[in-house]
Specification:
Blueprint (H helix, E strand, L loop, with lengths): L6 H25 L23 H27 L8 H30 L3 H25 L2 H7 L5
């Protein structure tokens, strides 16, 4: 008898993949075009931030994308191989936890650093940022919560109690 795939782990797989694809698209768009032109951002957004241009944020976002791709691959591997391999290594779960925390930290940091500059944008641009923040903030929180789900911990080798 084949066991059903745990919905929580499948949902985490989808959430990580969504975040990862966005980060892998946005990160290079920022660090390759330091002035923000790759994504249509005005350099004035960074006025009261620790960043002089979009290079460092782009690198950080791209690294989060690469890390998210690794977690996504580990989840796919774990879901496919469940019951057919030795127990997974605990580093996998801890890595997934760090990546999920990193995603959430990115969203919190982006909102905190860009809230005032975005407030001064025209209404349609401001609403685009707010929608993006709500969507990716929600995905980040859900991803973090799903990392703690029992099936995910079991598949990735995390602590079970």
């Amino acid at each position: 008898m084949r066991l059903a795939r745990p919905w929580s782990t499948s949902a985490l797989l989808v959430g990580m993949a969504f975040w990862t694809l966005s980060a892998l698209g946005g990160g290079p768009g920022l660090f390759l075009f330091r002035d923000g032109s790759g994504l249509g951002f005005d350099p004035e957004l960074l006025v009261n931030t620790p960043f002089a241009d979009f290079f460092a944020p782009g690198v950080i976002l791209a690294l989060l994308g690469v890390a998210g791709a690794v977690v996504t691959a580990l989840l796919v591997r774990g879901l496919r191989a469940r019951g057919r391999r030795d127990a997974p290594s605990p580093w996998q779960w801890y890595f997934a936890l760090v990546v999920a925390l990193g995603q959430l930290a990115w969203m919190v940091g982006e909102v905190a650093l860009l809230w005032r500059p975005v407030a001064g944008l025209p209404g349609d641009q401001r609403e685009l940022f707010h929608t993006f923040w709500w969507a990716f903030g929600a995905v980040s929180v859900v991803n973090l919560l799903l990392v703690f789900a029992q099936p995910t911990r079991r598949i990735l080798g995390g602590p079970t109690r």
